[in-house]
Amino acid sequence: MVDLRVKIGDLELKNPVMTASGTSGFGEELAEFFDISKLGGFLLKGTTLHNRDGNDYPRMAETPSGMLNAVGLQNKGSDHFINHTYPKIKDIDTHFIVNVNGSTIEEYVELTEKINALDKIPAIELNISCPNVKEGGMAFGVNCPAAEAAVKAVRKVYDKTLIVKLSPNVTDIAEIARAVEAQGADSVSLVNTFLGMAIDAEKRIPLLSTITGGLSGPAIKPLALRMVWQVSQAVKIPIIGMGGIMDATDAIEFFLAGSTAIQVGTVIFKDPLSPLKVLEGIESYLEKHKYNSLYDIINNLQM
Amino acid sequence: MEKAVNDFVVIENAALNATNFRLKLQSKTPLPGIRAGQFVNVEVKNSNEIFLRRPFSVFEVDYKANTLSLLVKILGRGSKKLTEVEAGEDISLVYPLGNGFTMPQHGDKVLLVGGGSGIAPMLFLAKDCGLPPENVHILIGARSKEDHIDTEGYKEYGTIGFTTEDGSLGVKGFVTHHPWFAEGLAGFDKVYTCGPDLMMKAIGKAAVEKGVFCEVSLENLMACGFGVCLCCIEPTKDKGNACVCTEGPVFNINSLKW
Predict the structure, then answer these.
(1) How many Å apart are CA A294 and CA A286, to the nearest integer?
(2) SS3 breakdown of chain B: % helix, strand, coil, rounded to 5?
(3) Residue of A19, A270, A277 for testing the chain B interface, max B β-carbons within 10 Å
(4) Can you tell me the ipTM of this complex?
(5) Is B120 found in the same domain as B205?
């Protein structure tokens, strides 16, 4: 029996497989396919203080080995989450993590304080990297002073595990990671989507209502892997790696590059059972290679 | 756990005309109950260009043979690739997805209007609705005679009418030019439709004017099909931006902001 447990801040995960925010709803949707308590963690859909309708249709464009999205943080707001969603999921035996969004630092702080009051939410993922909103979002994640200010303000009001989700749309992601580590982040998760664009040549129109959107899927895996590697060389806090993971082999590559846990995202749209398949495959890999613990392969790239 | 991801075996992939194929698939496990209007999300293998599954309304279900059929109309690279699938191959489906049409009540007279690949759920509904054939009218619209598939087998479920834009079969023009519309939907209690948005909008408008119950089945672009990607949204009066995959694909015309 291999030991799949990992630690992220104060959070002890029974295994390193989580779902990525925005690809797995609020739990109930995937629970129609499998027992989600088998997962190490579950990142809930991006939440904001108040209701957001999101962007106009069309919000999605298929691209080679991936897709662009421009959902724009559609969600029913924090009160709806607290009163309607939380009671339904709080007793499921996995770690539910709220993906916290805001257009101002005050909004990030206010939402964090509300989530902090929920006993069964042991961590938040501070999203300073959403590319699909006009205000806030990625603006906080693309330069060090803005990222520092957001993390500092949230850290002041939040004692549980604070994960900061980083944007890949920067010149030097290691620099941003160092900055948020210095402000007390317990972990960084990376990467959010890459800003991209798709055009219909016949109609001569952009395929997304917002013109640009976030690219995800296997198309971004080599880029994400490179960024996880760079960040792992720069910080001591654990990294949660993601970006185009389709199967267990992809996940293993992220562990070798320095991730302590991983998030399975866009592949869920293709196969809702994929988080389970990735988990089973990681276990088989470790058994096959006679490792006792997942920690034996984390950051264990042979050079 | 009401939804599943499973491999089906391709029993038949037959061309019905130049642009429409019928893909008949057998489940390896007993099929769940599937209602007209529900859909499946089909994996398209062996292509880097095609990353996402393709959603299709269920066309026919045979619980005895444990098969379901899809009507595949060639619209883009995904549907094109699916026409190349051969009998004996495995094909992965996520199913059953979405909500079916509201079933008519005993004695209702219904009009089912299909355009393009939207005829699949309409023909399924004709079989599934449980009404005697004299209460069912099926209207099928297309550009030309060549675009129509053979619907002889559906005559036992209702009266079938055709329209074509070039006049090569049935009434010349759009479905709304057919006498059943021209006569103000007289005698119909419920109208159901699936097809191009413009067609459904025209039908919805006519139904609202006459105060006739009307349900439409939408075909918005989607990634997942089960409510997590939030890409296939349609603005509604009662539920904000609703996911077509989980709140629909069938909507009452009065809940849409058309």
Answers:
(1) 7
(2) 25, 35, 40
(3) A270
(4) 0.95
(5) yes
Clarify whether A144 is annotated catalytic.
Answer: no
- For chain A, list residues whose CB is within 8 angstroms of any CB belonging to chain B: 22-25, 29-34, 45, 51, 53-54, 57-60, 62-67, 69, 71, 74, 217-218, 268-273
Within 8 A by CB and 6+ apart from A153, the residues are A105, A108, A109
Tokens representing A100 are 């916290």
CB-facing half-sphere around the CA of A111: CA atoms within 13 A = 27
Alpha-helical segments (H) within A233-271: 248-256, 267-270
Residue numbers of the domain that contains B124: 110-217
B117 and B205 belong to one structural domain: yes
Structure-block tokens of residue A9: 């801040």
Domain containing B153 — which CATH number? 3.40.50.80
A141 neighbors A183 (Cβ within 8 angstroms): no
Taking the CA of residue B114 and the nearest CA in chain A, the distance in Å comes to 24
Q: Are B70 and B39 within one domain?
A: yes
Q: Which of A2, A123, A130, A151 is catalytic?
A: A130
Number of structural domains (chain B) is 2
Q: Which domains does chain A have, with CATH numbers?
A: 6-56+73-194+215-296 (3.20.20.70)
Residues of chain B with pLDDT > 70, as a percent, come to: 100
Cβ contacts (< 8 Å) between B234 and chain A: which residues?
57
Residue B245 included in any domain: no
Q: Is residue B125 part of a domain?
A: yes
Do B52 and B93 sit in the same domain of this protein?
A: yes
pTM (two decimals): 0.96
B196-255 pLDDT, tens digit each: 999 999 999 999 999 999 999 999 999 999 999 999 999 999 999 999 999 999 999 999
